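Lecture 7, part 2: worked example. A protein chain together with zinc ion.
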Amino acid sequence: MQQITLTQPDDWHLHVRTGDMLKTVINHTARQFSRAIIMPNLQPPVTNVAQALNYQQEIQQATSRQYNFTPLMVLYLTNATTVEDVQQASLSPAIHAFKLYPAGATTNSDQGVTDLNAIYPIFAAMEELNVPLLVHGEVTDPEIDIFDRERVFIEQKLSVIHQHFPDLRIVLEHVTTSDAVQFVQQAPDNIAATITPQHLLYNRNAILVGGIKPHYYCLPILKRETHREALVKAATSGNPKFFLGTDSAPHLTHLKENSCGCAGCYSAYAAIELYAEAFDKAGALDKLEGFASFYGADFYQLPRNTQQITLEKTDWQVPEHYPVTEKEQLTPLKAGEILHWKLQA
Ligand code: DOR
Ligand code: ZN
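Predicted complex, written out as structure tokens:
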């Protein structure tokens, strides 16, 4: 049997929600990962240190004691974020970044920022205090085609922010295009990107061919094959600017299988296994450890993990659903399909 052993990985972009959903998903992450960057797009969003500490406590209480898992907290930028909020965040060891959602770009982004120029003093404080900016990189202009929204954001918004704040550390989250890959490759070391398993494994045909497949719908939306290929190349290149961030984003099955289905793929149940599939297909399993376990920690200026995990090459079937409440469930990415890598208990 083939197996690989890796330094324990971290997930640098994760949604875990609250309540019953949190209880359903958090141990799926904690059994694999040592740490995860927790997205703050709750309703209402996590906008200050006190709220983040409460949320961190709720996550820790939902996590099984058998795991040694640390949730790394992030604050949600709004039009009302103050320089004092940034100062307080920079002093709190629990807080690791701010997240920029352009208002209207995605799930629970209505409290997001409407005018980037208006928050320049906030970016200046983050640059000064060495607090990373995590970016959902899509424009929201209704005129712009959904498949072009990431490229246009980079051209019109991100490159301008980077020019004005050259020392600001920025993670362009869940990159989906060759344009994003190129931007990040050409930028200095303070600009990095996360890549999700679904964007390595699928192109937009997965959503649209043979019927509408809502469980492949996420934002930024899956793109054409040439973009997927560019992402696989970046992830498996050994370039430390690209690292693991699942963007696992659980929604109840009935809210995905809906006339207005929610955006988000649930991948946390088998995140490292899904990345192993993608790296194995590319013949690059030797590059998985850097991507999954080293480069993100280095970018966030945190120590690398010292524990190890082992993956075995063995087939197993993904469940059709995970129960969330007595009546409600969650459908994972690749529900009912066979995965070829399995994390050893
Ligand atoms: O598909 C997505 N789901 N993209 C996001 O940016 C947000 C996320 C969510 O919170 O459901
Ligand atoms: Zn996300």
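The mean pLDDT is 97. Residues 13, 15, 39, 247, 249 surround zinc ion (ligand 2) (CB under 6 Å). Keep this in mind for problem set question 3.
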